Amino acid sequence: MTVQSAETAWERMLLEREIERFLYDEAAMLDERRFSDWGDLLAEDIHYHMPIRRNVKFGEQHRENTDTESEISWFDEGKRTLMGRVRQLNTGVHWPEEPFSRVRHIITNVRVLAVDGDEVEVSSNFFVWSNRLRDECVMFIGTRNDILRRDSETGWKIAKRLILLDQNVLLAKVFSTFF
């Protein structure tokens, strides 16, 4: 291994660790209901998208996720809408969250897929557990594909998030979780 390739490997490892830490800190903000702080992590031009997943025949994998241009999604939002949801949750009178849910985000398998200047493409898996009232428990499992953008003044921002749930039918009575 040359000195240059060792330096490149070291820089890549540090970047991967920095991204992991960012995603773990983000999960902690959501678990601790620090939604306004979480909103500060969102880029002004964020696209936050969770398509509905379908069961499709072999060879038709291109149809598995609904299309953001022509079909409905669970989420297809920008920062304005996301922050509106945050403001609503922060009022304390949002009926789906009264009493509020206990939520835990477990983020794993974080992989840096590509680096392009100040933007990094990242893939991670998640397990989100939510408990509301006495006996309402919901689990969400899936993968996220993010574009993170480094802001020289404020650090990393989420510029794009594609959330792919492994389940295609949601049995949750309430769906107010951020991923």
Low-confidence segments: none
The count of DSSP E runs of length 2 or more, i.e. the number of strands, is: 6
By DSSP (H or I, 4+ residues per run), the number of helices equals 3
Summed over residues and divided by their number, the pLDDT gives a mean of 90
The tally of domains stands at 1
Gross geometry: globular
Percent range of helical residues: 25-40%
- Taken as a percent bin, the fraction of beta residues is 35-45%
Distance between the termini: 40 Å
In short:
This protein has helices spanning 3-31, 35-39, 79-90; strands at residues 42-51, 73-77, 102-116, 119-132, 136-151, 155-165.
Please give a structural write-up:
With 179 residues, the chain is an alpha+beta fold. The chain has one domain: Nuclear Transport Factor 2, Chain: A (Roll), CATH 3.10.450. It is built from three helices and six strands. A hairpin with a 2-residue loop joins β3 and β4. The chain is globular and about 60 Å long. The N and C termini lie far apart (40 Å).
